[in-house]
């Protein structure tokens, strides 16, 4: 099994193909899916060995599905012209056609067959598989998985499609998004169940028909697809998840679209796939999965979350650093446990001020970097200064559970808050050296920190005599 990534194109500052390939190499990403068959991208991928799934866009599907000659021309231009130099291994014909473009449903199987015939003619059919990705929403009654079946109205498409996949040795492509299942469940699906977090046995979902225990949404959806194929008497077709992920940012109605949840989901997903756990129905048979997606897409229409599924920003800077110990060499920006404590968005400034005073006073954090003229003085505001102090305390306390709370105004993040010459404790810094998180406290005979626990911002003097006891909480980090 492998982990791959999807590469979208809705970026205002789209990296050049050579920059994309450089990032793929740096991250040891060996499997990618393109949403088209862009010539420049395929040329840049030449001689890299990276396995590439290319796509027939939905707007070309009708033409290809109605004309063998059009399909043959597409294969000649976008496939035969590039192999074997570029390692094309699969073609995704359309995307979620039955749910997004249902009027093209009647020609979907014809399109797959025409593409495959062209590959046969070019003697490429053994190397390149042909399939089409489906939304998991075509699976009805998906829990318990053993009762799942495909939407019956699409039987005239699904039955010949599965016959085609079986006869050509191909696989079912499925898009699996536990985020949407969680969002649409109205609280029925626990967040931990969607994020692959450990559940107590009494919280695991049990299929009453098979007595199989499900510890996460992803496995339940994959097994539902296997059972839905069995319902149509197809039991030997493998499955590849062509899209799965979690958004790192959302609007006010998407409070669980956060950097930490995205990190947790994708880190756990990668580990789950690469350790060959498999699913309860097929233990030990891992499902190869492509993460959606490599880059955030700021031009993508729709909600805030639609633009924020990427692992990286367009400039190649990680949106967050994945926790990947033991996951092999994929995604080389693995700096496991590199977490930071920062102020929560929208936190009350007086609460932040009081917490800052405590950290730089009784908390014994060395806040000298916040003094005027020092690297972390700018920007001179309570949010920025409290972030530094919170994180310094958190690192000083060896990231112990409960040490990033400060009466609810702080939160853990995997995004390095360092800026300019202000390197936060725990950061690798610009020279790649981790700032020691254990030597930040003043000596034991020091009664105050390097900066006064009284700060003036915007003309308001805010002081606090409140001693902030750190509330014990359960912090989940991997």
UniProtKB/TrEMBL annotation:
Its main location: membrane. Keywords: Cell membrane, Disulfide bond, Glycoprotein, Glycosidase, GPI-anchor, Hydrolase, Lipoprotein, Membrane, Plant defense, Signal. It is a lipid-anchor; GPI-anchor. GO terms for cellular component: plasma membrane; plasmodesma; side of membrane. It catalyses: Hydrolysis of (1->3)-beta-D-glucosidic linkages in (1->3)-beta-D-glucans. It is found in: Cell membrane. Coiled coil: none annotated. GO terms for molecular function: glucan endo-1,3-beta-D-glucosidase activity. Residues 339-424 form the X8 domain. One of its GO terms (biological process) is carbohydrate metabolic process. Its EC number is 3.2.1.39. It comes from the Eukaryota. Belongs to the glycosyl hydrolase 17 family. This is glucan endo-1,3-beta-D-glucosidase. It comes from Citrus sinensis. The lineage of its organism: Eukaryota, Viridiplantae, Streptophyta, Embryophyta, Tracheophyta.
């Amino acid at each position: 099994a492998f982990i791959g990534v999807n590469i979208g194109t809705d970026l205002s500052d789209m990296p050049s193909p050579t920059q994309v390939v450089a990032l793929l190499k740096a991250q040891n990403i060996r499997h990618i899916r393109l949403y088209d068959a862009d010539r420049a991208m395929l040329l840049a991928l030449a001689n890299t060995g990276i396995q590439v799934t290319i796509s027939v866009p939905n707007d070309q599907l009708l033409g290809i599905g109605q004309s063998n000659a059009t399909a043959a021309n597409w294969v000649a231009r976008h496939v035969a012209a590039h192999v074997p130099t570029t390692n094309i291994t699969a073609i995704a014909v359309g995307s979620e056609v039955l749910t997004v473009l249902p009027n093209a449903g009647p020609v979907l199987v014809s399109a797959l067959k025409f593409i495959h015939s062209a590959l046969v003619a070019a003697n490429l059919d053994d190397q390149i598989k042909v399939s089409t990705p489906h939304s998991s929403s075509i699976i009805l009654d998906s829990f318990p998985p053993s009762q799942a079946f495909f939407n019956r109205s699409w039987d005239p498409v699904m039955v010949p499609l599965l016959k085609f996949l079986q006869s050509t040795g191909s696989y079912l492509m499925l898009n699996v998004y536990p985020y949407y299942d969680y969002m649409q469940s109205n609280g029925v699906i626990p967040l931990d169940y969607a994020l692959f977090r450990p559940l107590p046995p009494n919280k695991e979902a049990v299929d009453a028909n098979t007595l199989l225990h499900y510890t996460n949404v992803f496995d339940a959806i994959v097994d539902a697809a296997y059972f839905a194929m069995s319902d149509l008497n197809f039991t030997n077709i493998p499955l590849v998840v062509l899209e799965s992920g979690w958004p790192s940012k959302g609007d006010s109605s998407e409070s669980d679209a956060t950097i930490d949840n995205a990190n947790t989901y994708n880190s756990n997903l990668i580990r789950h796939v690469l350790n060959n756990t498999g699913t309860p129905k097929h233990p030990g048979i891992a499902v190869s999965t492509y993460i959606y997606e490599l880059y955030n897409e700021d031009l993508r229409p729709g909600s805030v979350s639609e633009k924020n599924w990427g692992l990286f920003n367009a400039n190649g800077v990680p949106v967050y650093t994945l926790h990947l110990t033991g996951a092999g060499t994929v995604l080389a920006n693995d700096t496991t446990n590199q977490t930071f404590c920062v102020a929560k968005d929208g936190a009350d400034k007086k609460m932040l001020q009081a917490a800052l005073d405590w950290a730089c006073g009784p908390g014994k954090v060395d806040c000298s970097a916040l003094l005027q003229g020092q690297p972390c003085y700018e920007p001179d505001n309570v949010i920025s200064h409290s972030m530094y102090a919170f994180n310094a305390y958190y690192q000083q306390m060896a990231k112990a559970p409960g040490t990033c709370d400060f009466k609810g105004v702080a939160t853990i993040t995997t995004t390095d808050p360092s800026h300019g010459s202000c390197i936060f404790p725990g950061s690798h810094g610009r020279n790649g050296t981790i700032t020691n998180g254990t030597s930040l406290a003043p000596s034991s005979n020091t009664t105050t920190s390097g900066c006064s626990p009284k700060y003036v911002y915007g003309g308001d003097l805010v002081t606090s005599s409140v001693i902030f006891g750190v509330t014990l909480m359960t912090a989940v980090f991997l």
